[in-house]
């Protein structure tokens, strides 16, 4: 204990021991460092104390003077004091409980098994090969070992490496396909019915857009209720259904006409003095009279016509393009 420290003496670069980890592992690391630096017995005792912390340091401080006569005594006292912190050594049977989990890649399972095997240094090549093969999932490696068994763990590792490479290649290919499918899905058109926008700037379409934006009429069906599969090539934005186009929708035309009669959508109507009755007026007038014969608004409409001096109203910018 009275050995003098040499001028170039350095403390070993090992972690401090606080009493919570395996004392045998800490002692082994210190003895390896002491052997490297050629510590004498007395220097070992003096330097070993510098690796203590917290509970270990408190234990050493309460030792009576003269309790340690050599490093061998110090070693025995240390191991006895912290015996409860020793790590339980695994036995060969520990290898037989390492099972491959469902959907666990072969590489991850092999890494877990090797980590356990390192804690069982006494396990032979044959024992490790048998234990690893026992709990493999019914995959390609298991079938290969069933057809052509191996007795040495090193030979099993060599074969497993081939199947690990195959699994990783398949996973990479699957991931690539998934990304491509995702890109295609993102680029795919929405399920929302495609609307022909060629005539959207026509007076009729602009009138409908105004009606839709301002909520002047109640739409028969919301976009959430749109049919998932098209029934025909024609789609009506007003009914949100297939069967006829928006331009062909009689219901919508009647609604727009009603709104015009009530003073709405005047920006889309051009008023002229009609000298005679146009072919359009004749054709549409006969249909309108049949539809509106029982309408309560008929009297008001008649009054509106009389107010305008009996002159007919012509939707020149709206009707001529939409009803043509």
Detail the topology: elements first, then pairings.
Blueprint: H1 23-37, H2 41-49, H3 55-61, H4 71-81, H5 106-117, H6 125-134, H7 140-147, H8 153-187, H9 203-214, E1 235-236, E2 241-242, H10 250-261, H11 279-292, H12 298-307, H13 319-322
Antiparallel strand pairs: 1-2
Organism: Sesamum latifolium
Protein name: Retrotransposon gag domain-containing protein
Pfam family, one: Retrotrans_gag
Describe what is shown at a glance.
The protein is mainly α and 324 residues long. It has 13 helices and 2 strands, in the order H-H-H-H-H-H-H-H-H-E-E-H-H-H-H. The radius of gyration is 46 Å and the shape is elongated.
Summarize this structure as a short list of keywords or feature phrases.
Non-ribosomal Peptide Synthetase Peptidyl Carrier Protein, Chain A; 324 residues; mainly alpha; 13 helices
Distance between the termini: 116 Å
Radius of gyration using CA atoms only? 46 Å
What helical percentage do the residues reach? 40-55%
Tally of DSSP β-strands: 2
Secondary-structure element order, N to C: HHHHHHHHHEEHHHH
Report the major sheet.
2 strands, antiparallel
Specify the structural class: mainly alpha
Domain Retrotransposon gag: 47-136
Region (Disordered): 174-201, 279-324
Pfam families: Retrotrans_gag
InterPro entries: Retrotrans_gag_dom (IPR005162)
Describe the model.
The chain is mainly alpha-helical. It folds into 3 domains: 23-85, no CATH class; 92-187, Non-ribosomal Peptide Synthetase Peptidyl Carrier Protein, Chain A; 203-322, no CATH class. It is 49% helix and 1% strand. It has 13 helices and 2 strands; from the N terminus they run H-H-H-H-H-H-H-H-H-E-E-H-H-H-H. It has helices at residues 23-37, 41-49, 55-61, 71-81, 106-117, 125-134, 140-147, 153-187, 203-214, 250-261, 279-292, 298-307, 319-322, and strands at 235-236, 241-242. It has a two-stranded antiparallel sheet. The longest helix is centred in the middle third of the chain and has 35 residues, at 153-187. The protein is elongated, with a radius of gyration of 46 Å. The N and C termini lie far apart (116 Å).
């Amino acid at each position: 204990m009275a050995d003098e420290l040499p001028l170039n003496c350095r403390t070993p670069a090992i972690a401090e021991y606080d009493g919570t980890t395996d004392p045998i592992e800490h002692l082994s690391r210190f003895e390896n460092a002491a052997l490297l630096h050629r510590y004498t017995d007395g220097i070992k005792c003096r330097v070993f104390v510098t690796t203590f912390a917290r509970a270990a340091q408190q234990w050493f401080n309460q030792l009576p003077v003269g309790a340690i006569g050599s490093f061998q005594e110090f070693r025995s006292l240390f191991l006895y004091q912290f015996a409860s912190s020793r790590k339980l050594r695994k036995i060969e049977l520990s290898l037989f409980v390492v099972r491959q989990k469902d959907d666990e890649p072969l590489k991850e399972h092999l890494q877990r098994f090797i980590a356990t095997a390192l804690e069982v240094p006494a396990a032979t090549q044959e024992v490790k090969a048998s234990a690893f093969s026992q709990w493999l999932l019914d995959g390609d490696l298991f079938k290969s070992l069933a057809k052509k068994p191996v007795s040495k763990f090193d030979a099993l590792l060599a074969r497993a490496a081939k199947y690990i490479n195959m699994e990783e290649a398949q996973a990479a290919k699957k991931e690539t396909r998934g990304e491509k499918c995702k890109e295609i899905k993102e680029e795919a058109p929405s399920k929302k019915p495609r609307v022909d926008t060629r005539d959207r700037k026509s007076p009729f379409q602009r009138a409908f857009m105004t009606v839709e934006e301002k909520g002047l009429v109640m739409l028969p069906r919301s976009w959430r209720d749109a049919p998932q599969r098209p029934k025909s090539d024609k789609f009506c934005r007003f009914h949100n259904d297939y069967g006829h186009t928006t331009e062909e929708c009689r219901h919508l035309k009647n609604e727009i006409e009603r709104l015009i009669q009530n003073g709405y959508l005047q920006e889309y109507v051009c008023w002229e003095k009609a000298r005679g009755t146009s072919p359009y007026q004749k054709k549409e007038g006969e249909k309108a009279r049949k539809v509106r014969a029982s309408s309560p608004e008929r009297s008001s409409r008649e009054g509106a016509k009389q107010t305008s001096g009996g002159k007919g109203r012509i939707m020149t910018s709206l009707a001529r393009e939409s009803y043509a």
